[in-house]
Design goal:
mainly alpha; 0% strand; globular
Length: 135
């Protein structure tokens, strides 16, 4: 692994952890947030975490690959919520299951995921350009 890839993996891991912390905080402290943030931030942060996760795994690939995988993964999870079998609903009724799989399909979640992934791409682009500028 090259030094740049090592730095990038550290950046993406840090971004993943930060998204998890902020996402959980947005759920736990929603009553203290502006209603708009309380309603939308958690899903956007979840999608950002997914993007940074794919960038962590595919650090040497173009960001477009992580973007595509993130959209497919996020939308796949959301559309899977249309499937309501007892066994998967039991998983969804656990805290971790609800955080990963969600509970019910909402069209607005697709927009939240898309905007979250786009924000992550912008952050990633800024990071990549700052590394190129500092060379």
């Amino acid at each position: 692994m090259t030094p740049i890839n090592h730095i990038s993996r550290f950046f993406y891991l840090t971004a993943i952890i930060l998204c998890i912390i902020l996402g959980l905080a947005s759920r736990l402290y929603s009553s203290m947030l502006h209603p708009f943030l309380a309603q939308h931030a958690g899903d956007a942060l979840w999608a950002m975490m997914v993007y940074f996760g794919f960038r962590f795994l595919f650090v040497q690939k173009k960001p477009f690959l992580a973007f595509g995988f993130s959209v497919l993964f996020s939308f796949g999870i959301e559309f899977s919520q249309l499937y309501q079998a007892a066994w998967i609903n039991q998983i969804r009724n656990t805290t971790i299951g609800a955080l990963i799989l969600g509970k019910g399909f909402l069209w607005i979640d697709l927009l939240r995921y898309t905007l979250g992934i786009m924000m992550a791409v912008i952050i990633d682009w800024l990071k990549i350009n700052s590394i190129k500028t500092n060379k």
